[in-house]
């Protein structure tokens, strides 16, 4: 522990310029956030002409009829236009808020609110909660019409929307209540630990954040998800027995097997698993069950279990811990720097003893370029995991010595094609756009890889014979 703190102190030494040098942090944040937004717009402009292609890629030609392909291109085009406009609009709003001292204003408003209840500025955690609530509510406002447009105009036009206006409103209100119910105590604990541990908060906050992640894993399926969706046990039948048999053969600790009414909101479909190491839930969208045959859904689950077998969620958790550690390790230099807050229009009084939440929020903005790079790296890792899970599904026949699974690659391919066709997913993708945005390889890439895995496996099989 002491070695850790010595290293962290050395890092702070390197960053001591934050407290001493007069740096125009506001300009830096503006430049970085506009840089990222303009880069994202550039990516959309690279991707956009691909929506005008009239034929699908050769591998997919047999699976898309002309009309479906035309629809998927139109859907892609509409979504790209929407992303371009919303991306620029959101950035313009954020930029204006930053430029005109919105954060300093929100801190003062938070102070006034708690003042009405008789609390002064010495109650930093209370003021931080009020500040966050003000910030959250005001910055959510521009997103509401955009999200309504996306649901009721864009998705509706392409036949995906199943959300009613009342469901939209209740979802939003539930989301807010949850954000306050979970966010409030979490934020209080975060600020309390930071104050309590003083300069040695890094390992303590790591422990807090880790516990929070574990608590979320437990309460998400049991408390949160049922607020939004109905989960019902998967009915007895072909799919259920296939899933249970597959889980048993792989020694996957399947505790609950659910069908989720994803179709309540949208016709997009999927399947996933989660839970603690000894107790897992598998959830399959009703839309997936409706659109694919049981043996194809089984292949999708084989892919999902590939993620589990190769411990992808655990690996991602470790990566996220390293990411959190880096952020926390850099943070103290910004926490103890009044000049840093002054650059964002905070008054001399507030800046003299920087509130942790304010410093942390502004510090997050400083990290924008780093976060963009981390995002690209994470997508890269995630795409590798997807290949690995696809490969796992193809090779199940050998792993389980089960010849009935020899066509798992084909079945997975068919399920992926159905998912893509039904979701009208984009099939022509610019490589740079994909590298930046996509956590999954494109359908064309996956089908090609499935063929290669299968061919390699058949080749090996022959050699053994
Ligand atoms: Zn996957």
UniProtKB/TrEMBL annotation:
Cofactor comment: Binds 1 zinc ion per subunit.
Membrane topology category: Multi-pass membrane protein
Catalysed reaction, written as an equation: Hydrolyzes the peptide bond -P2-(S-farnesyl or geranylgeranyl)C-P1'-P2'-P3'-COOH where P1' and P2' are amino acids with aliphatic side chains and P3' is any C-terminal residue
GO process annotations (BP): CAAX-box protein processing
GO terms for MF: metal ion binding; metalloendopeptidase activity
Enzyme class: hydrolase
Family affiliation: Belongs to the peptidase M48A family.
Intracellular or extracellular location(s): Endoplasmic reticulum membrane
Gene3D superfamilies recorded: Metalloproteases ('zincins'), catalytic domain
Binding residue positions for Zn(2+): 303, 307, 386
Coiled coil stretches, renumbered: none
Positions of transmembrane segments: 129-152, 173-192, 204-224
InterPro entries attached to this UniProt entry: CAXX_Prtase_1, Peptidase_M48, Peptidase_M48_N
Lineage: Eukaryota, Fungi, Dikarya, Basidiomycota, Agaricomycotina
Function field: Proteolytically removes the C-terminal three residues of farnesylated proteins.
Ranges where the Peptidase M48 domain occurs: 237-452
Residue ranges of every copy of the CAAX prenyl protease 1 N-terminal domain listed in the record: 47-230
Cofactor(s) the protein requires to work: Zn(2+)
EC code(s) of this entry: 3.4.24.84
Record CDD domains: M48A_Zmpste24p_like
Cellular component terms (Gene Ontology): endoplasmic reticulum membrane
Chief subcellular location: endoplasmic reticulum
Pfam family, one: Peptidase_M48
Protein name (record): CAAX prenyl protease
């Amino acid at each position: 522990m002491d070695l850790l703190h010595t290293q962290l102190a050395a890092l702070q030494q390197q960053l001591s310029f934050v407290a001493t040098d007069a740096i125009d942090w506001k300009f830096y944040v503006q430049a970085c956030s506009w840089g990222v937004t303009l880069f994202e717009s550039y990516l959309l402009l690279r991707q956009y002409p691909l929506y005008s292609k009239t034929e699908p890629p050769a591998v997919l030609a047999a699976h898309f009829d002309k009309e479906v392909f035309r629809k998927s291109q139109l859907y892609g085009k509409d979504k790209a236009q929407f992303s371009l406009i919303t991306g620029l609009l959101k950035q313009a709003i954020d930029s204006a808020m930053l430029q005109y001292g919105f954060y300093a204003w929100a801190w003062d408003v938070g102070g006034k609110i708690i003042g009405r209840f008789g609390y002064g500025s010495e109650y930093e955690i209370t003021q931080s909660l009020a500040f966050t609530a003000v910030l959250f509510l005001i910055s959510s406002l521009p997103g509401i019409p955009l999200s309504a447009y996306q649901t009721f105009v864009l998705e509706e036009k392409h036949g995906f929307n199943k959300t009613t206006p009342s469901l939209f409103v209740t979802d939003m209100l539930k989301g807010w209540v949850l954000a306050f119910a979970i966010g409030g105590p979490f934020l209080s604990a975060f600020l309390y630990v930071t104050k309590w541990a003083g300069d040695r908060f890094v390992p303590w906050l790591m422990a807090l954040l880790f516990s929070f992640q574990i608590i979320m894993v437990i309460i998400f399926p049991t408390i949160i998800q049922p607020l939004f969706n109905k989960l019902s046990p998967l009915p007895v039948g072909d799919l259920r027995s296939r899933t249970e048999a597959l889980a048993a053969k792989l020694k996957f600790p399947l505790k609950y097997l659910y069908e989720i009414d994803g179709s309540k909101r949208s016709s997009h479909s999927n399947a996933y698993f989660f839970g603690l190491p000894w107790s897992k839930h598998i959830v399959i969208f009703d839309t997936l069950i409706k659109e694919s045959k049981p043996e194809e859904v089984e292949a999708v689950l084989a892919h999902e279990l590939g993620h589990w077998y190769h411990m992808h969620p655990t690996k991602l958790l470790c990566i996220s811990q390293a990411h959190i550690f880096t952020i926390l390790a850099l943070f103290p230099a910004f926490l103890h720097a009044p000049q840093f807050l002054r650059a964002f229009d905070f008054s001399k009084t507030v800046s003299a003893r920087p509130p942790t939440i304010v410093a942390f929020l502004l510090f997050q903005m400083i990290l924008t370029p780093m976060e963009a790079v981390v995002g690209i790296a994470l997508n890269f890792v995630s795409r590798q995991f997807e290949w690995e899970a696809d490969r796992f599904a193809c090779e199940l026949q050998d792993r389980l010595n089960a010849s009935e699974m020899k066509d798992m690659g084909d079945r997975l391919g068919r399920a992926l094609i159905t998912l893509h066709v039904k979701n009208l997913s984009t099939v022509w993708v610019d490589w740079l756009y994909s590298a930046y945005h996509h956590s999954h390889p494109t359908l064309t890439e996956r089908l090609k890889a499935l063929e290669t895995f299968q061919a390699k496996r058949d080749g090996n099989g022959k050699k053994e014979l």
